[in-house]
Write a structure and sequence with these properties.
- It is a multi-pass membrane protein.
- Keywords: Cell outer membrane, Membrane, Signal, Transmembrane, Transmembrane beta strand, Transport.
- It is found in: Cell outer membrane.
- With 1040 residues, this protein is mainly β.
- It has 10 helices and 53 strands.
Length: 1040
């Protein structure tokens, strides 16, 4: 009942704001905004009433409607064009032709806390995408729509499964064990973009395709998206935005005529790339055929024997459809925007899907001359049906049940011998036909078809994001804005292993149910004053207060051994076969902040920001921490004109600006880590039910201090050749010290892990943005946007004797590689098994002449790319528009755990030399003599020795990818007038059409552990995930 009460608490004030009142003293202005050179309408141009929050955007025909008082000014702006202001008089029609300047320096950018600034006045790096740029990539996950379009941003998909999570990082990572993803803000309200690490009891981080919650946001509802890249840009949001921020502004209603927009898309996807299998050898052991063996270590195929294409038969074409409809309009005082969306996506893996239904309502009303109220409410239902990924069930789960990990669907597919048709998975008596794993008792493997049809994993999320706001102007120079909002969702997760599944301890069936609840409530008050000091100095000061409360709960039920084998329910399990656990977390952050701005003649700009936070997750003595920011900018071209060095605007360099900033920002600890952590459960498979508290899971740290990052940034913004070429270059250096580490400790400490302060990470990098207009004619334009970034993240210090901090695992039958930060080396390192060597690098061999696996893991790779490039081309010819994006990532290693598993199964092409002999160049460890012994590369060598050298499974992850190409056509307006349609556009889009890479796995853009793994996550760890897809979309956009 409390959750429903929370919903009413936010929705009822929203409804009270929707009253419509008559206009008094207002003039309704309409008109068209066009390109001054070509006469073409500018779609999405901004029209705003200067000094108010009243604004709108132009439609598909460049038309707008807005209400304004006589004597006030309207500003017309569009990216790449000079802004124009017009005073409202007696005329009710104002048509505007904007002139191109390469990039509009007067365009208003939404920055931290909803503060709007002209781009020219910014003293730090930001980058803004408009709605058209976001939706043209046809990505359901808003995170993926940024790929290749923002310098300094690195994004990785976790897999090609429907609803799979994506990881986003800006300018590397500043935390070894904490969250390195940016804060997401929608209409001024922070929202949750997290992804669960695991699926609950018995499931590990690699088991399920959990979604990041940013996937709940409908891209069609977004008007613009601004990326605040560094601490200087995001410092007003406090510790939540220490990794940058993604500021989303949603679409609003427009005063004037009622408008309905409808768009749809129908998509067809196929698997993009799969691993190469060896087709020379069939099922068996040590060269002998055995129909019950799980491995392909048998004899060679005969000339007339069938080789089944189990991969090609398994992955299916996937069909997706999307429908979006919106209605907007309003009176001269009140506007509204209402939208509904339905997204249905099927996966290339049978019986997998992701569905999203969304409804959104926003309204804005001018209650009085100097008082405006607004609000919005967004309801989303997301349903994800997936399958167990990775290795399936962990070999030893939390309740002690031990299994062979055979439940992973992709693992079962990549195990299945090619002499056997995997589609034949049901025996005559209706049971699963599986690989018995005669090699050992724990090597059973489930058939992949059995897994997808009998072992489903389902997630159902109900989410509400709501906001209310009041804006009051008591004087012309003073504004008071209050904004409150909440983001809460409930996720019900179910994972079933049907009876007959060959997972150790669960052959009679098992079920996991998890109910998660998460809520973030935010309240912000900002008072802003503006004052001119003389004729040339303009100042503004914003003072504010912010309170954020977050809470989450989780209830977990696990049961095994169904009483009725065909009925999967926790109620179909005996009491002593159940485990029930629960947990929760709370955090409150209170902040006070100030933002001072000054400029002289719009030539010199100064920005001073400061914030103090009080966090409930830190000890009382360290709970309060302060961080400042100083930044400035100089428009050199205007300065030269001012002092008389230059006379007027130069055609070669019409604009040049330099900027610099220094910022210190903090980060607190996760909730409830000051004390020891215990497991609280109600049963442990005992004869009688009982409750108990398990051993310490993690040692607490009662004296934790906050992390701090000191960041320096400098940049230059230049326009060349009458603004036809724009160049924006940024250099940054960030030092993050006093790391809050969550690291493993020796078993003698009686705990797995512990929290402690210590360590430093340095990030250094450059970003380059280039935009150019090679051609601009009345019937043909060509625009180019280039984004380049390079970042290095180095672990400079670690506490005590630590030489590394491990972050994520990719385990394959006992051999493990981990994402890890290494002292003096990369934060994105790979920690893995290696062969033993002496100080001179010579192999230390056993007495038989084989290499030996070292007991000490070493750094075997660096997942951080050397640089990232995104290149977008946009061409318009008449009513045709064609755009495409090339995405390049050069460097960065991938640990191919999938290939390691294929070697284990005998299906890897690395095993084709089986049975041959070789002499390893090394030293016999017991004698110290050079090796001369010839050894056979047999099944044991590949499975227990070769797989123990992780360096053999590290590959270069470079790629060149045609991320998308889209062609659209706008139906001429005279044809539409006959059917009373305002606009109609049809389009076709291709996604991932070209992938050029030397990586042997499915896709070098991979993060097998999803988006919930802390630190640098599981980026670059390829462990039996669903392959990526390529596809085509066909759709239309219709306006009435």
């Amino acid at each position: 009942m409390k959750r429903h009460a929370n919903f009413r608490h936010w929705i009822l004030p929203m409804l009270l704001l929707l009253g419509v009142s008559a206009a008094i003293g207002q003039t309704r202005i309409t008109g068209t905004v066009t390109d001054s050179e070509t006469g073409a309408p500018l779609i999405g141009a901004t029209v705003e009433n200067v000094g108010t929050s009243n604004g709108t955007v132009t439609d598909l025909d460049g038309k707008y409607a807005i209400t304004a008082e006589s004597g006030t000014a309207l500003r017309f702006s569009y990216i790449g064009y000079s802004s124009v202001e017009k005073t409202v008089g007696a005329a009710s029609v104002i048509d505007i032709a904007l002139s191109s300047d390469g990039e509009n320096l007067d365009e208003v950018v939404v920055t931290a806390l909803g503060i709007r600034k002209e781009k020219k006045a910014l003293t730090y790096a930001v980058q803004t995408l408009q709605s058209e740029s976001i939706v043209e990539s046809q990505q359901p996950n808003i995170v993926n729509s940024l790929q290749g379009k923002v310098a300094g941003v690195m994004i990785n998909n976790s897999s090609g499964a429907p609803g799979a999570a994506s990881v986003i990082m800006i300018r590397g990572g500043t935390s070894l064990s904490g969250n390195n993803q940016p804060l997401f803000v929608v209409d001024g309200i922070p929202i949750d973009n997290s992804a669960p690490i695991g699926g609950g009891i018995g499931l590990s981080a690699q088991n399920t395709n959990n979604s990041n919650r940013g996937i709940d946001i409908n891209p069609e509802d977004i008007a613009s998206l601004t990326v605040l890249k560094g601490p200087a840009a995001a410092v007003l949001y406090g510790l939540r935005a220490s990794e940058g921020a993604i500021i989303i502004t949603t679409k609003k209603g427009q005063a004037g005529s009622f408008r309905i927009n409808y768009s749809n898309a129908f998509s067809y996807d196929v698997v993009n790339k799969v691993p190469e299998f060896q087709t020379a050898y069939k099922q068996g052991i040590d060269g002998n055929f055995n129909p019950d063996a799980r491995g392909s270590w048998g004899p060679a195929f005969g000339p007339n024997e069938t080789i089944y294409d189990n991969l090609g038969n398994f992955f299916q074409p996937a069909v997706t459809q999307r429908h979006d409809i919106s209605a907007s309009g309003g009176s001269e005082r009140s506007t509204f925007y209402l939208s509904a969306s339905r997204f249905d996506q099927n996966g290339i893996v049978p019986n997998t899907s992701f569905d999203r239904t969304s409804f959104r309502l926003s309204a804005d009303s001018k209650i009085a001359k100097n008082l405006r109220a607004g609000g919005s409410v967004n309801y989303i239902n997301s349903q994800n049906q997936s399958t167990l990924g990775g290795s399936g069930i962990a070999e030893t789960n939390i309740i002690g049940a031990t299994g062979g990990g055979g439940g992973g669907t992709i693992r079962g597919l990549y195990n299945w011998p090619l002499n056997d048709d995997a589609r034949n998975y049901i025996t005559e008596d209706g049971k699963q036909r599986t690989l018995l794993g005669v090699e050992n008792d724990a090597s059973f493997v489930d058939n992949p078809y059995w897994s997808v049809y009998n072992n489903p994993t389902n997630s159902n999320v109900n989410r509400v994001i709501s906001t209310v706001s009041l804006s009051y102007d008591p004087f012309s120079f003073l504004n008071i804005t209050y904004r409150a909002g909440t983001d809460f969702y409930d996720e019900k997760f179910t994972s079933i292993r049907s009876a007959g599944t060959v997972i150790g301890g669960e052959e009679k069936g098992a079920i996991t149910e998890v109910d998660r609840f998460n809520q973030i409530t935010t309240s912000t008050l900002v008072v802003t004053g503006k004052k001119s000091l003389g004729r040339h100095i303009n100042t503004s000061l914003a003072l504010g207060h912010n309170v954020e409360s977050a809470r989450s709960t989780s209830a977990n039920w696990y049961g095994r051994n169904f009483i009725v084998p065909t009925f999967a329910s926790i109620n179909n399990v005996l009491q002593n076969e159940r485990v029930i656990s629960a947990g929760g977390a709370r955090r409150r952050i209170v902040g006070a902040f100030a933002d001072f701005n000054a400029d002289w003649k719009s030539i010199f700009f100064l920005n001073i920001r400061a914030r103090n936070d009080w966090s409930s997750t830190l000890p009382v003595a360290n709970r309060s921490f302060f961080y400042p920011s100083f930044s400035g900018g100089i428009v050199l071209t205007d300065l030269l004109n001012e002092i008389g060095v230059a006379n007027g605007e130069s055609d070669f360099i019409p604009y040049a600006k330099v900027r610099a900033s220094w910022t210190r920002v903090g980060k607190d600890a996760p909730p409830h880590v000051l004390g020891n952590t215990y497991f609280n459960t109600t049963n442990s498979f005992t004869a009688g039910p009982r409750g108990f508290i398990a051993n310490v899971y993690a040692f607490g740290a009662p004296a934790l201090r906050p992390e701090f990052t000191n960041a320096f940034e400098a940049g230059v913004d230049i326009r060349l050749f009458k603004g036809k070429i724009g160049i924006d270059f940024t250099y940054y250096n960030m030092k993050s010290d006093d790391q809050i580490l969550f690291t493993r400790v020796p078993p003698s400490a009686s705990s797995f892990i512990s929290y402690l302060n210590g360590g430093r990470i340095d990030n250094e990098g450059v970003e380059l943005m280039v935009n150019a207009r090679p051609v601009k004619r009345s019937n043909f334009t060509w625009n180019i946007d280039l984004n380049f970034s390079r970042n290095t993240s180095t672990v400079v210090e670690l506490p005590g004797t630590l030489d590394r901090v491990e972050q994520s695992d990719a385990s394959v039958d006992g051999f493990v590689a981990q994402g890890a930060g290494f002292l003096g080396q990369s934060l994105f390192g790979i920690n893995g098994d290696v062969w033993k060597r002496n100080e001179d690098g010579k192999l230390l061999l056993d007495d038989m002449g084989y290499p030996q696996v070292s007991a000490i893991k070493e750094v075997i790779g660096d997942r951080n790319p050397d640089f990232i490039v995104g290149l977008t081309n946009s061409l318009r010819f008449g009513n045709f528009n064609f755009s495409f994006l090339w995405d390049f990532r050069i460097g960065g290693d991938i640990y191919n755990a999938t290939e390691n598993a294929l070697v284990r199964n005998g299906l890897s092409t690395k095993t084709l030399e089986r049975g041959s002999t070789t002499v390893f160049d090394g030293i016999i460890e017991s004698t110290g003599e050079p090796n001369t012994q010839q050894v056979v590369l047999d099944q044991n060598y590949y499975q227990t020795i070769l797989r123990g050298n992780g360096q053999l499974f590290v590959e270069d992850g470079s790629w060149y990818r045609l991320r998308y190409a889209t062609l659209s056509y706008r139906i001429p307006k005279p044809l539409l007038e006959r059917i009373n349609v305002k606009g109609l556009e049809v389009y076709a889009t291709g996604r991932n059409l070209i992938l050029i890479t030397n990586y042997s796995g499915v896709d070098p853009e991979v993060s097998s552990g999803g988006a919930g793994v802390p630190g640098t996550g599981a980026m670059g760890m390829d462990n039996l995930g669903t392959p990526s897809t390529k596809g085509a979309d066909f759709g239309l956009r219709l306006s009435f």
